[in-house]
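Ops channel
N.P.: pipeline sanity check, posting one input/output pair.
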């Protein structure tokens, strides 16, 4: 559906303004769809991001500062997210024996199981672009990379 119809705005000052609004609108559209998938599992998008980061390191663990550096949302309070995931049994924390100031975080079996269940549903979100050919998808990825550079 056209952006103008979605947000009930007939025109924009420029195509550049429309692009910015379109990117923001699309971000929140994707965020809302993902939040609905995660809600039954009792986790937030930021917690989901932490779990995915930890699954990528499995069976090893990483420090909270390493998690923070890989987060999509850099404003997240990583320590608080990890504490909540620990309380829910989705991750395990251990003090690094070589440097007791560092805490190593690992995903638990329960965390892996929840991610596997979410992956099945998440496929519908990750494949929102499946109606496009691979060349178009690569163009958009390159475009977004260039936008951030």
């Amino acid at each position: 559906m056209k952006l103008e119809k979605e947000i009930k705005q007939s025109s924009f000052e420029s195509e550049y303004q429309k692009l910015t609004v379109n990117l923001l609108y699309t971000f929140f559209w994707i965020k809302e769809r993902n939040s609905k998938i995660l809600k039954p599992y009792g986790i937030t998008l930021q917690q989901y991001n932490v779990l995915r980061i930890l699954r990528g390191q499995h069976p090893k663990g990483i420090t909270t500062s390493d998690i923070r550096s890989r987060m999509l949302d850099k404003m997240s309070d990583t320590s608080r997210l990890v504490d909540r995931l620990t309380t829910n049994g989705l991750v395990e924390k251990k003090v690094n024996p070589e440097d007791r100031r560092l805490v190593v975080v690992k995903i638990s079996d329960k965390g892996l199981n929840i991610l596997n269940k979410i992956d099945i549903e998440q496929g519908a979100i990750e494949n929102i672009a499946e109606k496009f050919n691979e060349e178009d998808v690569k163009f958009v990825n390159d475009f977004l990379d260039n936008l951030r550079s």
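N.P.: looks fine end to end. The radius of gyration is 19 Å.
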